[in-house]
C-alpha cells in the first residue's frame, strides 16, 4: 500500500491537471464566442444604419403634399414613423455593442437635472402619446445641479419611461418625479402597468432580460416603479 500511494496521488494529480486544462479550454472558447458575438452585433448595427440613412432622408423630404390624397399622406406618415423606430432600434443595438466592448466614453458636465428629465420626456413622447397614456411630471422648483453625461442620463430616464409605456395597457397612467434626497438626485417613474415579477429582480440590470411580453400585454392593474439615482 505504501508503495502504491505515490502512484495513486500522481494519477489524481494528472486527472486534476487534465480537468483544469479542459475547464480552461472551455472558458477560452466561451470568451472567444462572446467576443465574436459582440463583434457581430457591432457589424450588424453598422450595416443596418447604411440603408436607413437614405430612407430617412427620403421620408423627411416627402412631407404632406396637396397632390396626394389623405390616405397617401397617412401612409407616408406611417412610413416616416417606422423609419424613426428602426433608427432608434439600431442605435440601441449600437449602444449595446459599445457597452459590451467597453467603448462608451462619458462626457460629463454640470447640468440641471430638470432639463435632462424634460429632454427624456420629449424622447419618449411619441411612444407615450401613441398608447394614449396620461403622463404627469413633478420637478423641484429650484435647479438640481449634477455632474453627469447629459446624453446618457437622458437615455436612462427615457428608457424608464419607454418601458413604462410599453408594459402599461393603452390609456394608462405614468408619472415621473425628481427629488433631492440626502445628497442624491433621485428620478422615479411610476405606472399602473403589469409591474415586474419578483424572480426577474436579481437580473434587473442584465442585458436582454425581460418578462413574458405576451402575457404582459394582456394584463393590467399592477403598479410598476423604477428609479435611478445620481450624486448631486
Short summary of the structure?
With 232 residues, this protein is of the alpha+beta class. It has five helices and six strands.
Describe this entry's structure for a reader.
This protein has 232 residues and is an alpha+beta fold. 56% of the residues lie in helices and 16% in strands. It has five helices and six strands; from the N terminus they run ααβαββαββαβ. The chain has helices spanning 5-61, 70-100, 113-130, 150-166, 213-218, and strands at 109-112, 134-138, 145-148, 173-181, 184-191, 224-231. The strands form two sheets. The protein has a four-stranded mixed beta sheet with strand order 2-4-5-6, with helices on one face. The protein is extended. The chain starts with a helix and ends with a strand. The model is unreliable at 215-226 (pLDDT under 50).
Poorly predicted parts: 215-226
Residue fraction in strands: 15-25%
Number of helices: 5
In terms of quaternary structure, the protein is single chain
Question: Between the first and last Cα atoms, what is the distance in angstroms?
Answer: 71 Å
Give Rg in angstroms: 25 Å
Beta strand count:
6
Shape by Cα distribution = extended
Assign a percent range to the helix content: 55-70%
Order of helices and strands: HHEHEEHEEHE
Amino acid at each position: 500500500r505504501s508503495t502504491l500511494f505515490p502512484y495513486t496521488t500522481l494519477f489524481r494529480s494528472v486527472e486534476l491537471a487534465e480537468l483544469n486544462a479542459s475547464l480552461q479550454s472551455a472558458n477560452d472558447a466561451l470568451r472567444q464566442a462572446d467576443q465574436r458575438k459582440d463583434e457581430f452585433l457591432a457589424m450588424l448595427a453598422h450595416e443596418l444604419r447604411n440603408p436607413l440613412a437614405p430612407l430617412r432622408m427620403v421620408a423627411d423630404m416627402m412631407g404632406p403634399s396637396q397632390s396626394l390624397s389623405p390616405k397617401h399622406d397617412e401612409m407616408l406618415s406611417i412610413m416616416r414613423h417606422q423609419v424613426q423606430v428602426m433608427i432608434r432600434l439600431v442605435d440601441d443595438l449600437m449602444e449595446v455593442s459599445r457597452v459590451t466592448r467597453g467603448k462608451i466614453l462619458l462626457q460629463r458636465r454640470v447640468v440641471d437635472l430638470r432639463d435632462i428629465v424634460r429632454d427624456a420626456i420629449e424622447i419618449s413622447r411619441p411612444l407615450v402619446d401613441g398608447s394614449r397614456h396620461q403622463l404627469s411630471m413633478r420637478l423641484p422648483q429650484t435647479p438640481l445641479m449634477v455632474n453627469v453625461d447629459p446624453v446618457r442620463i437622458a437615455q436612462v430616464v427615457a428608457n424608464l419611461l419607454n418601458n413604462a409605456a410599453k408594459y402599461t395597457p393603452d390609456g394608462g397612467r405614468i408619472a415621473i418625479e425628481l427629488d433631492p434626497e440626502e445628497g442624491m438626485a433621485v428620478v422615479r417613474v411610476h405606472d399602473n402597468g403589469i409591474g415586474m415579477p419578483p424572480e426577474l429582480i436579481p437580473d434587473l440590470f442584465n442585458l436582454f432580460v425581460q418578462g413574458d411580453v405576451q402575457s404582459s400585454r394582456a394584463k393590467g392593474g399592477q403598479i410598476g416603479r423604477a428609479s435611478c439615482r445620481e450624486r448631486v
